[in-house]
Amino acid sequence: MAVQPAAQRALIAAVQVLGLAVWFSASAVVPALRESWQISATASVWLTASVQLGFVAGAVTSTALNLADRVRAHLLMAGCAALAAACTAVFALLADGLAAAVPLRFLTGVFLAGVYPVGMKLTGSWAPPAGRGLAFGVMIGALTLGSALPHLISGLGDLPWRGVMGAAAGCAALGALLAAALVREGPQFGSGVPPRPHPRYALTMFRERGPRLVNLGYFGHMWELYALWTWLPSFLIAGTAARTGRADATVSLLVFLSAGIAGVVGCVAGGWAADRFGRSPAAVTALAVSGACCLISPLVFTAAPAVVVVLAAVWGAAVVADSGVFSTALSEVADTRYVGTALTAQTAIGFALTVVTIQLVPVVAAAAGWRWAFWLLVPGPLVGAAAMRAFGRRTVPA
Q1: For 23-47, what is the mean pLDDT?
Q2: What CATH number does residue 257 fall under?
Q3: What is the pLDDT of residue 331?
């Protein structure tokens, strides 16, 4: 029976939802871990930053070895999802402090570098250029939903932190099974014959104007994205305390609404807009809206709850709406033999930037207060929008 592209894209998206559940699993239970392990806010940053650093290390290794283009993609994704699940399960069962937690989170990030970028390549392999923007938007939406899933697990039930981590590990293990059993690579990127090794392609692509501008736009986007996802709970808690005088820490559902539900809507809308209006206009619009949210965040800090919910939803949609646009654009201007390598290199550098902003936001908050902390992120959308506007002037929208 012929393989249906839509069914394959749906399966790949399902694997992303399940596999990426382990990414922010520790971040979702930071308040409980700080109390249980008696660690400071500064030390707890490493529960997220170590995943980002691990992802960068895994992505750099994959890029140098061209793994995403030389290994059967569905098996690579399945194996890495299973290993990320195993690391998270060990965390849930055995971790009793940062000495054990940070290495396990680092390894989780290493293995996730074989899930997210490989999923993008697989999605593109089943999507012709005319509909690739929407296909990538759906895939990134799945990633967004999966990343926010631990907040839902934590917010809906009264699970202890080990239960939340264990549930996330179970999700990733199920994703690994789906990838191995049902996902296959499509026909869009070549004949299926592995290309010869080309460890320098990640550098070679920056010599070409199209890939260089798309990557610069992506880096501006990443300067903002993960710092917002990581520190939005702290921003909301501090704003509630400033408005009411109470340290209300029950923000998990609002974070899931912003990063999860609104993020999925933004990803799908951004992908649709990329196909309808072109890659550059879609990215520039998303970057402009998210940059505006950065700018007005101090005004909304102590606003009425309804206003805060609206800002969180709009920001959550806009900040990730362009993720699929960058992946789509790069898949169209990179060498088709090394699309997987190009996408992995793009994410490696982008996630290295996230480590910087994740670390700096609480420093700004300590110096100036949480009201002003997100102003640090404003340069990212500005630089990204300028790069994608230049990209649009040199290329014809698909």
Answers
A1: 84
A2: 1.20.1250.20
A3: 86
Residue 194 counted as domain residue: no
Reply yes or no on whether the pLDDT at 197 is more than 70.
no
Written as one letter, the residue type at 177 is L
Distance (Å) of CA 142 to CA 136, 147, 148, 305, 356: 10, 9, 10, 28, 25
What is the span of the domain harbouring residue 285?
5-186+202-394
Number of separate domains in the chain = 1
Q: Determine the average pLDDT of the residues in 366-390.
A: 96
304 falls within a domain: yes
pTM of the model: 0.79
Of residues 141, 136, 98, 143, the one with CA closest to residue 120: 136
**Which tokens hold the place of 16?**
């992303």
Amino acid letter at 8? Q
For residue 196, being part of any structural domain is answered with no
Highest mean pLDDT among 304-313, 345-354, 374-383: 374-383
Pull the structure tokens for residue 102.
Answer: 């940070």
* pLDDT band, very low/low/confident/very high, at 373 (cuts 50, 70, 90): very high
**Res 194: pLDDT:** 58
* Euclidean distance between CA atoms 35 and 163, whole angstroms: 16
Q: How many CB atoms lie within 10 A of CB 174?
A: 18
Residue 380, H or E segment: helix 379-394
Asked if the model's pLDDT at residue 196 lies above 70, the reply is no
| 2 pLDDT above the threshold of 60 | no
**Other C-beta atoms lying within 10 Å of the C-beta of residue 276:** 12
- Residue 316 scores a pLDDT above 90: yes
Any idea which residue has 């996230």 for tokens?
A: 354
Note the pLDDT of residue 157.
Answer: 66
Written as six digits, the tokens of 52 are: 């980002």
pLDDT at 292: 97
Amino acid at the residue 133: G
Q: Can you spell out the DSSP letters for 241-264?
A: HHHHSS-----HHHHIIIIIIIHH
The residue assigned the tokens 């700004």 is 364
Q: Where are the alpha helices (DSSP H) in 301-372?
A: 305-321, 323-333, 339-368
Q: Provide the 10 A C-beta neighbour count for residue 64.
A: 17
CB 234 within 8 A of CB 374: no
Does 191 reside within a domain?
Answer: no
Distance CA 141, CA 243 (A): 33
Burial class of residue 372 (count of CB atoms within 10 Å of its CB; 0-12, 13-18, 19+):
middle
